[in-house]
Each structure stands twice: as C-alpha cells, then as structure tokens.
Amino acid sequence: MRIAALIVAAGRGTRAAAQGSGPKQYAVIGGKTVLGRAIGAFVGHSKIDEVKVVIHADDAQLYSGVATEFESEKLSAPAIGGATRQASVLRGLEALASSAPDIVLIHDAARPFVSDKTIASVIAALGERPGALAALAVTDTLKRASDGIITETIARVGLWRAQTPQGFHFGPILAAHRKAADAGNDTFTDDAAIAEWAGLDVAIVEDSSGNVKITTAEDLEVADQQLARAIEPRVGTGFDVHRFCEGDHVWLGGIKIPHTHKLEGHSDADVVLHALTDALLGAIGDGDIGQHFPPSDQKWKGAASKLFLEDAVRRVRERGGRVGNVDITVLAEAPRVGPHRPAMQDLIGGVLGISADRVGIKATTTEQMGFTGRREGIAAMATAMVFIPSEQTSA
Ligand code: MG
Questions:
Q1: Ligand 1: distance of its center to the CA of 270 in Å?
Q2: How far apart are the CA of 357 and the centre of ligand 1, in A?
Q3: Looking at the domain 232-393, which fold is it?
Q4: 142-146 and 149-154 beta bridge pairing
Q5: pLDDT, tens digit, for every residue of 283-318?
C-alpha cells in the first residue's frame, strides 16, 4: 500500500503576515519554519512513502530553502497552487496521480505539531472507510448571536472541530475534487466537505489538542515560546586514555596520523572519538562506550571508532535531540594535532550533523609530567552540548 501526504502551503496567511514577516508557513518557530515542521512530521513517519507540498507560485525560493533541510527522497517536487485552497488541493492531487498512491493524507502547513499518533490513527481508520479526518470534540458551549445578542444555545453533542490531516482513498477523493471543480462548486472549506458532497463516508478520528493551527501573529509567538521552553540543553563529558605500543601511526579524531608508535586497543584506539562518544552518551544518560561496545565482543576488534560515534548520534536523534557543539582536548607530547585539526573538525562535524566551527579541537602537552609527559600514551577529554525535547510538553 502506497501512502502519500499532500501538504497545502499555498495560502498567503494574511492574518499572521500583517506583521510583515511573509507567509506564516515560512515563519520560524523554535528555530525551524512552520512548514519545515509539518513536512518533517510526514517525512519522518514510517508509513508515509511520499510527501508533496503545494506552494504559491511566488514562494518557490522560500520553499527551496525549506526543502534543502530534508535529504529524504520521500519529498517530491512541489506543485503550484491555485486561487483557492480547494483549487490548490486539486492541483496537488493531479500532481500526485502519476505516482499512483492508494491513500492520500491532506494536511494544512499551518499545523506544524501533528503527531505520529494522529497520522497513524487516520491511516488506520482508512482501513474501514474511504475517508477519515482528525477532529476534536467541541467542549465549549456554543451560542448563536445576532446583533450582539444571543438568540440560541446550540447543543454541542455530536459536534466536532475538523482538523487535518484528512485522509482518503486516492481515486475517490481525486474524482470528488474533479467533480466539484467541473460543477464550479468552489466554496468547500475542507476536503472532508467535498468527500461528503460526493457521498463518501468520512470517519472521525479523535485528535489531541496539540495539533493547533497557526493563524495569527500571536499564534506564532505562543508556539515559538512553547518550543523554547520545550527544548532542554544537556551537557556530557568524556575522558579516555590509550597506551602506546609498537607501530607507525595513530588514529585521532577519525584521522590517521603517522607517528613513532600506535595506540593499543581493541578497536582502532581513537581516544578522541572514544571520549567524544562518552560525552554524547553522558549528555543523554545512556551508559558509556564500554557498555554498548564491550571490548570482550570480537565484533568490535579493529573497528573504526567512527562507528561508535555514529551510534551515539543515533541515540541522541532517537530522543528527538540534536548536538549543539562539542569541545575536545587532546593531552599528548606528540604527535602534533594542529596540522590535522581542520580534517578532524570536518569529519566529526559530518558525523554529528553540525558545522566545523561547532567542533572545538585543542591539544596540550603535560609539560613532560605524568604518563602523557613520559610519552606512554595519549589522553583526551570531551564535552558535548545536546538539545533534547523535554517530555512534559507535547509540542
Ligand atoms: Mg578507549
């Protein structure tokens, strides 16, 4: 079963844009664009095979700035929207038709906090019905008013607030949209309304209140503040030592450096990457390198230590986290680290997904004192800053 997501981002968002910040879907909250967050929710979902965004013709450059954040092949070329939301969705569906999805989830770019669970629940509901939408039960008492005076209290039983994603079997929703366009019927405010009009059953999937729609400049500010609170900085430290033995090179920071000795160890004995791996594991409270890669395990004999670092980064990302910066000090009389610093920064930055200027590499001798001073081995210390979403907030 092929499942596509169609993210509608062609609106002008005039209410939020009144502040002069451009279309709201390109506004930045918590360091990422609203649209980038919406795309990320679907690209990162295991059940989604393709993500297509419908953009405004004037936004091609803004969009390409957002799209470059994603290396995923799931993100296909954008479609250009029409004069109304309804027309934009139809153009997006026509563009998706060539990849023939079985199911399409149509989502508003202005809902950046849609959860994995909501996406999965809408998909699951489509096993029973041709349509399903995320919705919230109405909990406020509803009043009808005329000239500022209440004329009626409306029973809220059975009333729902329609959200997105709204999912459909692809063929029927494309046919319904085409039929509505052919009939010149262009006043539908969501895709479920078109499905209902075409006689398709649409199931309700109860959503969480976190899937808010960002409409006004104030919504943007509130979301930005919530995200700032929700990201927790964590710090970790690591230390490692390996002794010299006979050989002609050492591995430091993933770089092979000619030397009078090599470092003894089960793996390639790269003290820099070992200390750094421990710093990352320390920041997320997830044991240490010896626990995850026991020296007793023959599998790691002669292993490139980059593997250990990659595993620690994976553990950070699994928690939704990212690395901010790292700082390393090498303690050795020789070899000299300075000439290899740029190569180490590039390699480590590449593994961590950060720029080279976020990788500090420093070296010092110990003035010929102690084991490093007697050239018996090399030690390294590392500090890592990691940002992790805090668990108390759903945003
Ligand atoms: Mg070690």
A1: 7
A2: 25
A3: 60s Ribosomal Protein L30; Chain: A; (3.30.1330)
A4: antiparallel
A5: 999 999 999 999 888 888 888 999 999 999 999 988
